[in-house]
Amino acid sequence: MPQAKVVMNVRLVSPTTSVIDIQGEVTAFAEQVMMQACAEASTPTTRTIILNFSELEYMNSGGIGLVVTLLIRVNRQKQRLLSYGLNEHYRHIFALTRISDAIRIFDEESQALAAAQEAS
After folding, report:
1. Which range marks the domain in which residue 33 is found?
2. Residue 73: how many CB atoms within 10 A of its CB?
3. pLDDT means per 10 residues in the chain (120 residues)?
4. Is 111 a domain residue?
5. What CATH code is carried by the domain that includes residue 84?
6. CA angle at residue 68 from 66 to 74, to 5 degrees?
7. First and final CA of the chain: distance in angstroms?
8. Which of 18, 58, 98, 106 would bridge with 111, disulfide CB 3.0–4.6 Å?
């Protein structure tokens, strides 16, 4: 089985907000890495998880499916998912698939953090 070509680092930026920094390729092979990062980002007080796509190199339909799976998991835990750093190509894909209806997309981390604070 091919290896995932992705690294996800979790930063706990406040008691209620975590950021997952995504570097590399998000494909179906990234499932274990993504779900582990989600588990690490979800503390008992976490209300918002922010996905940082600024170092995303590639995402295919399997990766889009993982993002949707992550969204479902986060929603079940009464949390919400925000994102930033998507380039225009992936913004367009998120809009076409209507993922952007469920995951707010920001240009910069500071904007996503401000939105997370508003909801806390």
Report:
1. 6-102
2. 17
3. 85 97 96 95 96 97 96 95 97 96 97 89
4. no
5. 3.30.750.24
6. 100
7. 41
8. 106
